[in-house]
Amino acid sequence: MALLLVDDEPALANALARSLTVRGHVVETAGSHAAAMEAVGKTAFDLFLIDINLPDASGWDVLRDIAAAGVSTPAVVFSAVPPSTQRVREFQPYGVLVKPFPIDALVRLVDQVEKEKFGE
Q: Rounded distance, CA 57 to CA 101, Å?
């Protein structure tokens, strides 16, 4: 699957990207809202992995702008602070992870999306 990983912590983004790449996924990373939107404009992704706390906007803003662009790709969000139930209801992410989370939790969510999308 083609994944867009949006996180402004390079060490974490690189570790997650490596782990997902080893499992056969193509992972593009973005460290900001602006970089994420640029990537969305150039590439079709199968899943978004988005940190809520970004330097130039929130992950919720990324999701809002992606939807406004007509893209209906599922997303997994993660944050050091648990998101409010209001935000989760509003954006309906496929999954929510609270940092620090085990990589296996993210991998399971990615695998679930892949099975639902591609029946694998």
A: 22
